[in-house]
Amino acid sequence: MRLSKIAGLSVLIAVLMLYAILEASQGQTPAQVTIKNFAFEPGTVTITRGSTVTWANQDTTTHTVKFGDEESKPLGKGQTYSKTFDTPGTFDYACGLHPSMKGKVIVK
């Protein structure tokens, strides 16, 4: 009887550990946004909480990535900016130098 309780507890611990590993691996869905021709492509990215989005400027013009009061440094051609999102929600952003350029990050 005691051996079956130990075996059952061992199975439960193994299942919980597997669940924790799967949850941790699902929290990482990096996304890439290209800046080109005065546009963010794709315009909307969907990621999971804890993931990072990287913006890569492939335009000949300098751009920034601006979320409200937070703004990247000016990005020249070939430069990147990355941001990790730890809170679920929808986050609108724009280029601080060209406000008509807009994008969105959806964090699940």
Polypeptide structure, described:
The chain is an alpha/beta fold. Helices cover 23% and strands 39% of the residues. The protein has one helix spanning 2-26; strands at residues 31-36, 39-41, 44-47, 51-57, 66-67, 70-71, 80-85, 89-94, 102-107. The strands form three sheets. It has a four-stranded mixed β-sheet, with no helix packed on it. It has a three-stranded mixed β-sheet with strand order 3-9-8, with no helix packed on it. Strands 5-6 form a two-stranded antiparallel sheet. A hairpin with a 2-residue loop joins strand 1 (31-36) and strand 2 (39-41). The chain is elongated and about 70 Å long.
The chain-level mean pLDDT equals 85
Largest sheet: 4 strands, mixed
Number of helices: 1
- Detail the poorly predicted runs: 7-12, 14-25
Fraction in helix: 10-25%
Along the chain, the helix and strand elements come as HEEEEEEEEE
Instruction: Output the strand order for the largest sheet.
Output: 2-1-4-7
| Terminal-residue CA separation | 44 Å
Q: Keyphrases for this structure?
A:
single chain, 108 residues, alpha/beta, three-stranded mixed sheet, 1 helix
